[in-house]
Specification:
By secondary structure, this protein is mainly alpha-helical. The protein contains nine helices and three strands. It folds into three domains: about 70 residues; about 70 residues, no CATH class; about 30 residues, no CATH class. The chain has a three-stranded antiparallel sheet. A hairpin with a 5-residue loop joins β1 and β2. The chain is globular. The two termini are about 40 Å apart. Flavin-adenine dinucleotide binds next to α4 and α5.
């Protein structure tokens, strides 16, 4: 799986879905997903326009390789689906005495570019199972443990939803992407850490009224 960022504000993700014969790449099935902000394309386009193969090929024209060819080679007649990204930051809900439980995307739908939705869903299931075990084994009440579960979900997954929004936003903004450590340091761990430390010092300096903190 890999992804690409386009200066015009497109983001693309290419993932292998199926490998029927490892020795015959022509049999492999790929998924291509392009995302962009509402403001990147004209407002009056219908879903049908957006999903037309012609528009898809136009978007591909400005891409670098291998994205350009991967998109241009999508054959005539391929159906393209349109989706709108949605998210919500979870808030506490009425658990009705521990009987109403939200988990996974139902509890914390998030944008997918950071790839954390399923991770958090699995964490929800693990947390909940452990807490419910403590009802069975430890004499705790269902009301109390579900309340505890909800508080952890609202805090942990809530934070992730917000971080995912920032990440999605950055990936569709070329100028901000150029400022990211991956561009500035090329993914080199030491260099990336150095940049992160410098940025942290800069933020602390600003918080301290403009003076550099002591090293
Ligand atoms: C392109 C993409 C890439 C992603 N990549 C990652 C990644 O790399 N890492 C990661 O952690 N997460 C990733 N995610 C997020 C992840 O896919 C979701 O967070 C996860 O699938 C949510 O699981 P879920 O069981 O909570 O919800 P869902 O997978 O949405 O399952 C809900 C199920 O309920 C069914 N349903 C709905 N209504 C009813 C009804 N009334 N009656 C019966 N059934 C119903 C639906 O059909 C569906 O099968 C990605 C998401 C997308 C879109």
């Amino acid at each position: 799986m890999y992804h690409g960022i386009h200066p015009k504000g497109y983001w693309q993700f290419v993932a292998i879905q199926d490998v029927p014969d490892p020795n015959k790449p022509e049999t492999w099935v790929f998924q291509l997903q392009t995302t962009w902000k509402k403001t990147t394309e004209p407002e009056n386009l219908t879903d049908e326009d957006i999903a037309s193969l012609g528009k898809h090929w136009n978007r591909a024209e400005g891409m670098g390789e291998p994205f350009k060819s991967a998109n241009l080679w999508v054959p005539e007649g391929t159906k393209i689906s349109v989706n709108k990204m949605a998210y919500w930051v979870p808030i506490k809900w009425d658990t009705r005495g521990g009987r109403v439980i939200l988990a996974g995307d139902a509890g914390h739908s998030m944008t997918f570019q950071r790839g954390q939705g399923l991770n958090h869903g699995i964490a929800d299931a693990a947390n909940l199972a452990q807490l419910l075990q403590s009802v069975r084994d430890g004499g705790r009440t269902k009301e109390v443990v579900v309340e505890e579960y909800m508080n952890e979900l609202v805090e942990g997954a809530g934070e992730e939803v917000k971080m995912s929004i920032v990440n999605t936003d950055m990936l569709h903004d070329w100028d901000r992407f150029l400022e990211s450590p991956i561009v500035k340091a090329g993914g080199h761990a030491n260099q990336t850490n150095k940049i992160a430390l410098e940025e942290q010092r800069h933020r602390e300096a600003l918080a301290n009224g403009g003076t550099e903190p002591n090293p």
